[in-house]
């Protein structure tokens, strides 16, 4: 009897422990905010990998690119094959980061973020990717407060990934996940050129 | 005359400098070896992002997954839509990392790597992704020497991405690029469960 009681108690304790774990892992299913930052490679490409994942589950995805708008990239060509599941928006034509017209660049960044905000608030998207938006904040084309306001106003089911180096501390504080990509070795430094299909 | 000579000389120096830069950026176009390691998120998903890129350029891609073989993942569902461009191979059914039969697991890892080696040497692929292979090396299911031999025997035009935490130093020495994904904040630690479309 004592053995049985002891066993039962042990099992109960185990069950309790298990229940706590399960509870901890069952916090309401809401959209996450993920930041990919750091000086290494993989910030945007891992966001594109997550897009592939989301599309694989039949989810709806929105992308706003705050830079690289004029590049022909492999990801752009590839993902344009899925217009039903994916809305892809790049910043206005005139925006190159090479322009000397800061007011115009700020207007372009703000217009792109207005689009992003609509996407995030609409409830239509499982995932919204704001590619290189950290760069727009870094150069004061967007304020971190404006971006935080947009994130806070998003639909509860929408996850958002924000990429780009030099992510603002206030954004990292707000995010559920911050991943830093650290450059250990880089082929460009070894004299290799950017490679089609790998780097863009 | 003196001014003209001086200008010409300056232009020549500038041209020379430019030529050197261009040369440095034009090292023979060969396949790169990239390692994604670290304890943070984004190692596999950035490889999947690069796959999307490569597919966008009409390139041919091979994937060998050394783990997660039994999961239903978004990436697997998504990329299975492109059988003409993408060959996807997961390790033998019996392989779960939970088995206690180490000899069987080693045999499964070796069989998967044999497949990877064929892919890399065939010259048919622009990109080969060896997903979570670093874990196989970490647990001595594969030796780093065997993996290096396979990489060295690859077709010159084939880029290879090797993912997984705890990448072996000898592999990092050989690689053209090593990116470390560092976990700054992680949602699981905050009690959130893995999210379909984001985490798998």
Please describe what this structure looks like.
The structure is a homodimer of 200-residue chains. Chain A has 200 residues and is of the alpha/beta class. A six-stranded parallel beta sheet of chain A has the order 3-2-4-5-1-6, sandwiched between helices. The longest helix of chain A is centred in the N-terminal third of the chain and has 23 residues, at 2-24. The first copy, chain A, has helices spanning 2-24, 43-56, 74-79, 102-122, 133-138, 144-152, 169-174; strands spanning 33-37, 61-65, 86-90, 127-131, 159-163, 177-185. The first copy, chain A, has a single domain (32-180), classed as P-loop containing nucleotide triphosphate hydrolases (Rossmann fold). The model of chain A has no long low-confidence stretch (mean pLDDT 82). Strand 6 (177-185) of chain A pairs antiparallel with strand 6 of chain B. Chains A, B: It comes from Hyphomonas atlantica. Chains A, B: Residues 1-23 have a biased composition (Basic and acidic residues).
């Amino acid at each position: 009897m004592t053995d049985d009681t002891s066993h039962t108690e042990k099992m109960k304790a185990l069950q309790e422990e298990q229940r706590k774990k399960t509870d901890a892992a069952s916090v309401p299913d809401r959209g996450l905010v993920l930041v990919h930052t750091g000086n290494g490679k993989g910030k945007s490409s891992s966001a594109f990998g997550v897009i592939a994942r989301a599309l694989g589950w039949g989810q709806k995805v929105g992308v706003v690119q705050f830079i690289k708008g004029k590049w022909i990239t492999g990801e752009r060509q590839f993902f344009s094959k899925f217009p039903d599941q994916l809305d892809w928006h790049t910043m206005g034509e005139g925006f190159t980061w090479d322009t000397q017209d800061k007011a115009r660049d700020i207007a372009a960044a703000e217009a792109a973020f207005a689009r992003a905000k609509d996407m995030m608030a609409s409830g239509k998207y499982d995932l919204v990717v704001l590619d290189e938006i950290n760069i727009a904040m870094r150069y004061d084309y967007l304020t971190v407060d404006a971006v935080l306001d947009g994130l806070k106003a998003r639909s509860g089911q929408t996850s958002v990934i924000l990429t780009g180096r030099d992510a603002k501390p206030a954004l990292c504080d707000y995010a559920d996940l911050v991943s830093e990509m650290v450059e250990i070795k880089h082929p460009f430094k070894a004299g290799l050129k950017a490679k089609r299909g790998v780097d863009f």
